[in-house]
Design brief:
Order of helices and strands: HEHEHEHEHEHEHHHE
Oligomer: single chain
Number of helices: 9
Shape: globular
Distance between the termini: 31 Å
Strand order of the largest sheet: 3-2-1-4-5-6-7
Radius of gyration: 18 Å
Length: 268
């Protein structure tokens, strides 16, 4: 299916992308806007920067875009975000659960409040958004739900108990929703990125280079060589383009899948 037919199919649909004020989420929002979707941005950040991204989506792609600052740890705020998007655009066709946070520590030192926070944002928020949007998708018999999981939904790393547990949970949730909607035109899938070059990862690279007194290029190579055999980062545009594919008719029978975009990380 070519890009033109993808755009024709998604033109005028509405997509909510959580955690979309920067990084992977913004890449996904831009790809969906390019395909003709109206966009609901959600996330944290500096108000002026967020407004800049919102207006850029409208100007560059000729779609409508709004921002909802819903706190995804609060089920009532999640429901209000879905309701607000439905009032604004008449419907919500596509839901991308991308918001996520991280905390690392050995399990015996892992703060209970950080465990609760990671589970709330990385797993429970997905449940709350899906639960709120599924009824209208069933009414129209069409919808696309895409959960941005991680390679850590498939394999583990040390000192990431909450993140790994949450992302494994996301894959289980994805499968259940896929089975419950299997006879409809609603699909639910997960994308499992490995290392993606985002501002957050760039910060980690700079900190590593400074800490080890090595060059930025060497720090990148060391980071990638530990996990990602391709020695190349994925980028937000690639994740965005793949999200658009999963929204297309070509992907109508991809259901409950967990697709790695990880340069061979989970092939090892």
């Amino acid at each position: 299916m070519g890009q033109r037919s993808l755009c024709e199919m998604l033109n005028g649909k509405t997509a909510i992308v959580t955690g979309s004020t920067s990084g992977i989420g913004l890449g996904i929002a831009r790809a969906l806007a390019k395909a003709g979707c109206n966009i609901v941005l959600n996330g944290f950040g500096e108000a002026k920067a967020i407004e800049g991204e919102r207006t850029q989506l409208k100007k560059e792609f000729g779609v409508q875009a709004i921002f909802d600052p819903a706190d995804l740890t609060k089920p009532a705020a999640v429901a209000q975000m879905i309701e607000g998007a439905t009032r604004e655009f008449g419907k919500v066709d596509i839901l991308v659960n991308n918001a996520g946070i991280q905390y690392t520590a050995p399990i015996e030192d892992f703060p209970v409040e950080r465990w609760d926070a990671v589970i709330a944002i990385n797993l429970s928020a997905n449940f709350h958004t899906i639960r709120a949007v599924i009824p209208q998708m069933r009414d129209r018999n069409w919808g696309r739900i895409i959960n941005i999981a991680s390679t850590h939904g498939l394999v583990a790393s040390v000192e990431k108990a909450a993140y790994v547990a949450a992302k494994h949970g996301v894959l289980g949730l994805t499968k259940v929703v896929a089975l419950e909607t299997a006879t409809t035109n609603i699909t639910c899938n997960a994308i499992c990125p490995g290392w993606v070059l985002t501002p957050l990862v760039e910060k980690q690279i700079k900190e590593r280079a400074s800490r080890e007194n090595i060059s930025i290029d060497q720090a990148k190579n060391e980071l990638l060589s530990e996990k990602q055999p391709s020695r190349e980062f994925a980028n937000p545009d690639q994740i965005g383009t793949f999200t658009v594919f999963l929204c297309s008719e070509a992907a109508a029978q991809i259901r409950g899948a967990a697709v790695p975009v990880d340069g061979g990380w989970t092939a090892q």
